[in-house]
Design brief:
There is one protein chain. With about 260 residues, the chain is mainly α. The chain has nine helices and four strands. The chain folds into two domains: about 110 residues, Rossmann fold, CATH 3.40.50; about 140 residues. The strands form two sheets. A two-stranded parallel sheet has the order 1-2. The chain starts with 8 loop residues before the first helix and ends in a 7-residue tail after the last helix. The relative contact order is 0.08.
């Protein structure tokens, strides 16, 4: 651009680079104004910006410390980066996030939900949602409505299976995170808390969740879980996640007393 200042920007920069430059110019101009009014972005990054996605997320999170920042996006990877960037650090408290999911129905659009997509929802919130849903639908079992209860049990099995996968992903995230560009070696001590029993509990629960998801011969007619049994499966997941978190927090406390920089 310096060597050819008269050349159109679109012929020099890629679409991703063009967006980054435009965003940087906007934020630079914004910093000269004495106002803290909110700002709105519609897809500030795209799949073409994958190289700069994490920096854009960090910059917008930092800007939200000064003003309200509203971001419309369908990029789940970018949403996950925003969530991680807004978490508590040594230098600042966590930045609050308000999620709104806008979806389309059969005949209309604009249906708004206050929870993030299920595939980025924290496991503890998934547990709360499942318990709330169970309280609403267990009446099918109580009334002997097997067709509706079978459908609900299948839904719970699918949700539990996905929640277990997310729980395992969270448990190893101190070192390896999905869509992350590097391995966090300083978090390795948090993986030392795992025991054989943790693996057994997880695999057995995961296996139970798979029973109704696989096609089975009709003559087997597997028995449907009762609401109490579904609640038990939810509790097993919740307990497993909390135990891992507690032990990893203790590992962090040990890490803080040891100087690993010399190793």
């Amino acid at each position: 651009m310096i060597s050819k200042p008269d050349e159109p920007v679109g012929k020099i920069l890629s679409e991703g680079e063009h967006r980054c430059v435009a965003l940087a110019a906007f934020l630079a101009e914004l910093s000269t104004l004495e106002t803290s009014s909110g700002i709105v972005f519609d897809d500030p990054v795209s799949s073409l910006d994958h190289i700069h996605r994490d920096r854009v997320a960090e910059r917008l999170a930092t800007e939200s410390l000064k003003r309200q920042v509203v971001i419309f996006t369908h990029d789940i990877a970018f949403l996950v980066l925003l969530e991680e960037t807004c978490r508590e650090t040594r230098d600042r408290a966590a930045i609050p996030i308000a999620y709104r999911v806008v979806s389309r129905g059969a005949d209309a659009a604009g249906f708004c939900n206050t929870e993030p997509p299920a595939n980025v929802l924290p496991v503890d919130k998934v547990v709360k949602q499942m318990r709330k849903h169970l309280a609403n639908v267990k009446i099918h079992h109580e009334r002997g409505d097997q067709a509706n209860w079978r459908r609900e049990v299948g839904s719970f099995e699918k949700e539990l299976r996905e929640a277990w996968e997310r729980a395992v992903e969270d448990a190893v995230s101190p070192v390896i995170k999905r869509m992350a560009k590097k391995v966090q070696t300083d978090g390795l001590i948090r993986l030392t808390v795992f025991q054989e029993q943790d693996c057994l509990v997880m695999r057995e629960a995961y296996g139970r969740c798979s029973q109704l998801l696989h096609s089975q011969p009709g003559e087997l007619n597997p028995r449907l879980q009762t609401p109490t049994e579904v609640e038990t499966e939810i509790t097993v997941l919740e307990t497993w996640v909390q135990n891992i978190k507690d032990r990893q927090s203790n590992a962090d406390a040990i890490k803080s007393t040891v100087n690993f920089s010399k190793y």
